[in-house]
Amino acid sequence: MEQKKKIIIDTDCGSDDAMAIAMALNDPAYEIVMISTVSGNVHVDQATINTLTTIEYADTYEPPVYKGLDKMLLKELIYAHETHGNDGMGDIGLVPKRLKAQEGNGVLKMLECLRNSEKGEIDIIALGPLTNIAMAIRLDYEAMKKAGRIVIMGTAGLGAGNVTPVAEFNIWQDAEAAKIVTESGLDTIIYVGWDACLGESMLNPQEIDKIRSGSALGKFAIDCNKDLMEMNKERFGDAYLDMADPSAMAAALYPECIEKCEKYYCEVDVSDGPSYGSVLVDVNYFSGKEPNVYICSKLYPDKYKEYIYRTLRVE
Ligand code: RIB
Ligand code: CA
C-alpha cells in the first residue's frame, strides 16, 4: 500500500473551506494529521464548530481539530458574514452532533507535529488568514523549515482583489501575518490566487446542480455555500460559485490540475492606505530581487472540476 502523504490543514472554516476539507478527507492519497482553526470568515470558535460539522458530514475519518488564534496580529477582525452567512455555513442550522475540538492550541500542536516529522513529510495547506502560520514561524522557525510545501489560498494572484480592488480576503484580514510568511525564506510557499477559481473554473449552475444531486456530501458542500451563490447572482448575474479554498486544495492535492504556477518576488503591502493587504507580484522582475514564493494563477478547469466531483463522491 503506497504511503499516504501527510497534510495539516489550517482553516477559518467558512463554507468554501468546508468543501475543500470534505474533498481532502476523500482523497485516499492523503492523510490529514491535524486541523488547526483561526478567525477569519467567522470567529475561531465558529470556524472550529464548522470544521467539526464538515468532518461529520464527510463521514470518512476524524482528524483531531485544535483551536488556533482568535485575533489577528494587529488588525481588527472584519468577518465575512455577507459572503458565508453569520455562522459561516449559510445559516442553515449545521452543527456537529458528536465531535469536539481537542485540548491544546492549534499553533503549538502544528509545531509539535512538525518537530516529530521528517523534513518534507508533512505539507501545510492554509485556507484562511495566515495568523497561525506566522505565529508558528515566529515561535519555532526550525520546526516550520521541516514542513514540505506550504500551499496557501491567498492573494489576488495576477488579478483583482475580492475585498478591495487590489486585496484578497485572507491576506487583507491579516496582512502583517502574510508579510511574515512571504518574507520567511521557507522553501516552498505556493499562493493559489483568487483568480485561479474564476473564469472557466467557476462552478456554473449546471455543475452546481450536478454536485448537489450527485451525493449527500455534494448537497452539504453546495447548501452551505448558499449565501455566496445569492451574492454571486448580483455579482455575476447567475448562481455561480467561485470556490477559492477548493481550488487551493485541488492545486495542493492534485497538482496535475495546475495550468499556471510561477515563482516571483512578492511583497505584501501593510501600509495604512487603500492598498493595504495587496500583494505586489513582480512579474517583470523590476525589483531585481530573488523570487520568494510561487503564485498559482490558473487551473485546468476540467481537471479541477473532475477532482471536485471525485472527492465529493459525485456519481
Ligand atoms: O478570498 C477567499 C478566501 O477568504 C477563502 O479562503 C474564504 O474562505 C475566505 O477565507
Ligand atoms: Ca477560508
Largest sheet, order of strands side by side? 3-2-1-4-5-6-10-7
Small ligands present: alpha-D-ribofuranose, calcium ion
Molecular shape: globular
The CATH homologous superfamily name equals Ribonucleoside hydrolase-like
The proportion of strand residues reads: 15-25%
Q: Structural class from helices and strands?
A: alpha/beta
Alpha-carbon Rg, integer: 18 Å
Distance between the termini: 26 Å
Provide the CATH topology. Inosine-uridine Nucleoside N-ribohydrolase, Chain A
CATH architectural arrangement = Alpha-Beta Complex
Mean pLDDT: 97
**Contiguous runs where pLDDT drops below 50 for at least 5 residues:** none
β-strand number? 10
Question: What can you tell me about this protein's structure?
Answer:
The chain has 315 residues and is α/β, with parallel strands linked by helices. The chain has a single domain (5-311), classed as Ribonucleoside hydrolase-like (Inosine-uridine Nucleoside N-ribohydrolase, Chain A). 37% of the residues lie in helices and 16% in strands. The strands form two sheets. The chain has an eight-stranded mixed sheet with strand order 3-2-1-4-5-6-10-7, sandwiched between helices. It has a two-stranded antiparallel ribbon with strand order 8-9. Helix 4 (106-115) packs across helix 5 (131-139) and helix 9 packs across helix 10. The longest helix is centred in the first third of the chain and has 15 residues, at 44-58. The mean pLDDT is 97. Alpha-D-ribofuranose binds next to helix 1, helix 7 and helix 12.
